[in-house]
Design brief:
This protein is an alpha/beta fold and 161 residues long. 25% of the residues lie in helices and 25% in strands. A hairpin with a 2-residue loop joins β2 and β3. InterPro entries: Glyas_Bleomycin-R_OHBP_Dase.
Length: 161
C-alpha cells in the first residue's frame, strides 16, 4: 500500500511539474483580442491544458478586484474545443488564456487586464519584437497602449493587488 501511494505521489508530481504555466488576461472585446493575438502578434493557438478546470480563473482571488476592470460576464465566450476563452502559446511551457470580463477604457478603448506582471512583460516583448506601434504609459503598475492594424488603440493594464 505504501508503494502504491508513493507511486501515485511521484506520478502526480511529474504531471504537475510538466503542466504549462497559464497566464490569464481579461479583455473587453474577445473577437478583437482574437484578431490582435493571432493576427498582429502571430501567437499560435494552444490546446487547453489538462490541469485547467472550468471557471478556474474565477477562483484566483478576483473577489477583491476593482469593479472598474470588470463587466457583468466573466468568461462567457466560447473558444475552440467548447471551453471558455481563447488559448495561445506564449513560450514553450507558458500559455495565455484570454477571457472576457474587462470593461472598456477611456475613449472606449479595448482593455486587456492582467494580475501578473510577467504576463504583460511577455506580451510587451512580443509587441516590441513584432515592431507594433506602442507607448508605455506607466511602469508600476505596468500600463501600455498598442495600436492595431485597424487603427484601434488597445490598453494593457496590470492590476495591482
Amino acid at each position: 500500500m505504501v508503494m502504491l501511494l508513493g507511486a501515485y505521489a511521484v506520478a502526480m508530481w511529474l504531471f504537475l511539474t510538466s503542466a504549462p504555466k497559464v497566464h490569464t488576461v481579461m479583455v473587453s472585446d474577445v473577437e478583437g483580442a482574437r484578431e490582435f493575438y493571432e493576427g498582429m502578434l502571430s501567437l499560435p493557438v494552444a490546446e487547453i491544458p489538462l490541469h485547467y478546470y472550468y471557471n478556474y480563473e474565477q477562483s484566483l482571488g478576483t473577489a477583491g478586484l476593482n469593479p472598474m476592470y470588470l463587466s457583468g460576464s466573466m468568461g462567457s465566450t466560447t473558444a475552440r474545443g467548447g471551453s471558455d476563452g481563447l488559448w495561445y502559446q506564449l513560450k514553450k511551457n507558458t500559455q495565455l488564456h484570454v477571457i472576457s470580463g474587462a470593461s472598456y477604457g477611456e475613449k472606449e478603448r479595448d482593455r486587456h487586464v492582467c494580475f501578473d506582471r510577467d504576463c504583460l512583460d511577455q506580451i510587451l516583448l512580443r509587441v516590441q519584437t513584432r515592431g507594433v506601434k506602442h507607448k508605455i504609459r506607466r511602469e508600476k503598475p505596468l500600463n501600455f497602449l498598442v495600436k492595431d492594424y485597424a487603427g484601434r488603440v488597445v490598453e494593457f493594464a496590470e492590476v495591482a493587488n
